[in-house]
What does this fold into?
Amino acid sequence: MKRVLMICAIITVLTTVGIVWVLFSESYTFFQHVSIIDFLTDTEWSPLSTNKHFGIMPLLSGTLLITVISMCIAAPMGITIAMYLSEYAPKKFRYYIKPILEILAAVPTVVYGFFALTVVTPFLQNYIPNLAGFNALSAGLVMGIMIIPMISSLSEDALYAVPKSLREGAYGMGSTRLQTTFRVILPAASSGIIVSLILAFARAVGETMIVTVAAGNMANLTADPRETVATITAFIVNMSSGDVQQDSIEYQTIFAAGVTLFVFTFILNSVSFYIKKRFQEKYD
It folds into this structure.
């Protein structure tokens, strides 16, 4: 059994190494034809046009725009739900409502995408002028709904893990429940909450189907959520399903975009690991 478990661990490591090798080896070929400075600074992305440009900035800006919109929705709602379930909800209510809330995480993301396209976008067009049929706003709003369970679940676990002695000490000093929650429990669980936000941010950055269906596929360097944008993941999906010749520079843009996404999410995960290790409260 020990050898079986070791083999499973080795397979996992080798799979990760293989993925990284494929990404960086193909990207190396791409960067032999395209300057990495132009890749990072050019403001136009048009690998399939006659006048080719390979600037990742429009895809990166679209990714960040939708992600920021989703976090503006998910972060306050997720933390509020976690606070209520941890500090105020009856145990029986918490027992039943938490699994129901996490059902949102089990809904296929393509369903969220079509919901954003067919329900959210027409609704927003009644109130927001010049809102495109494919736009960053509706994709971001629905993505925010999708990642609420991740933030609420992880944050609720962090709040629930705070020792009862801290609560009892605060109550013994005359604090109300509200004061105890905001001045004692939240600071004690802050590292876990911050980690949940960073992981949710990374999850939103890597989301594919919602942005592919609802946000469009036009590489557009803009901060206006009413406009059509393209994200890194949406570009990878659309380019992979096209008739691009393998080993061409257009085909290699898939791996260049993939490396950018990999590095970005790796940095986010590393930051969350550092925060959890460095700032997490340790209790005897």
